[in-house]
Amino acid sequence: MSDAAGETGQNDSAEPPAEPPAGAPHPPKRGPVRRYLARFGTRRTMLSDARAGLVLGIESIPDGLASGVLAGVNPVYGLYGYLFGTLGGALATGSVYMSVQATGAMSVMIADVPLVVGSDRQGVVIATLSILTGLVMLGLGLARLGSLVRFIPTAVLVGFINAVAVNIVLGQLANLTGYAGEGANRIIRTIDTFAHLTSIHWPSLVIGAVTIGLILLLERTFLGPLSLVVAVVLASLLPLVPWFGDAAIVGDLTDVPNAIPLPALPDPSLTLDLLVPALSLALVGLVQGAAISGSIANPDGEYPDASADFRGQGIANLTSGLFQGMPVGGSMSATAIVRAAGARSALANLLAAVVMIVGVLLLGGVITQVAMPALAGLLILVGVRTFKPRDLVMVWRTGPIQASVLAVTFVLTLIVPLQYAVLVGVGLAVVLHVARQSNRVVIRRWVYDDSSPHPVETEPPAVLAPGEVVVLVPYGSLFFAAAPIFAGQLPEIPDRCERAVVVLRMRGTDELGSTFIRVVTDYAERLRRAGGALILVGLGDRVMTQLDATRATVVIGRDRVFAATPRIGDSLDAGLAAARAFAAPSASSGPGEPEASDRDR
User: Strand 99-101 vs strand 442-449: parallel, antiparallel, or unpaired?
Assistant: First the structure.
């Protein structure tokens, strides 16, 4: 859970296999079963995977408990999420190295779902939420929508991740200080905490501070990732000293049975209440997992398919939910830990799950003695390290649109439930992007002269003149929101402009919406009434089909619509020939318009 919001891990990847010598026989193709089993390595990689699995499994026990604390639920549900998420991910993801665990961002989101935190049937609610999240992920994976994450703007992610980091820190003040602040959100509760400094339980604060200090000290030693475990264990010994004796421990909240939980069926009646949180959790989990898919190659040197990872994370959530585990997603930090510890295949994550199972079976009573302020100290350090001010500054300087999206997402994430904040941030980014793209449509005029076969781009004329042939080229995305901007840049049509022709080059436009088609046909009709004509050139097959289906070709004139050809310029040449014939039937090219054969378009 130390990747509270998907912090960057190591990006080095295994070397791709060497190419066989020329003429050498290719190895026989393996069947699907053998290909699947190959993800778990060979006897040569088993020792490295066992060492990596041991490290991740031990580190994940206190980390899993901390994720449950962060989510505001029974800590064992976080541990179960780590256990069964890691197990399901090892068996099902396309990425061999991906560790699927309850990430910090997802945990904070769960803490903002009242139905989860306040329920007296918390195990059933958690199971239902995890299964719904898994169904969303699995459905997106089966639909091969792995590319969906690229539509989430960086400004939204940066604002959300950094606000989550702040939420992690503020959300643990109660466990750290022993005083639960009151208020509608974490900001108000933090203010209330500082207003009641005399109510702070100082032994708890000391335990949290000692945990942070030990982590910072021990991680510089050979312990590496295990420094988290050692620090929490050592700090949890302090309650044995009388002055610390009344500090809260995990056993005050729940018993940790020395057994694997029995399967728990979800409650379908909770679906509507949990659907929005499940969608938001799936979105955040998949985005974090996509960072692994796109940056860490499999042992064969190939990068995993994002859609396969979607499916794998969905199966991991279904497994986690079935055993009352929290929703899970691809964890960049856990993946980095297992790789740094020497993982060579998916067997490392599989063995990490086995280590967690053994830990639960043998150490249930010991786990109950873990000090809550120690877990709070661990989480606060995670939150501080997740906060990335450089990313905030970079996005802020990118432009006003990105800065607005960043600010709104950041503020909303702090003051409203997170499942709504991330959806609002994405929605706002879409609206602002549409507005920006619609205002970027520009129409330019192409003017030819005898000095060069290439056109000169100029501003389009404000008003059409009789007998004038005007070649116009639009740039930008021609969709419904851009239609008014496009129409406002077309030359004005006077009451009479005999033989005036507007040639509109549309090459590169794959599709036109009904709004845009209406603008074009209205302009053609007004030109016709004034004595002129509109000619369209460079039309793709899809646009031609749309114009025929909407009868726009009848309004414009079928002989004034020219499809694009493989040779650049042929369609424009044909359109200009028709324009000259209309503008000056008995004359050659109009003023400033050389013969088409003299131009290279």
Answer: unpaired
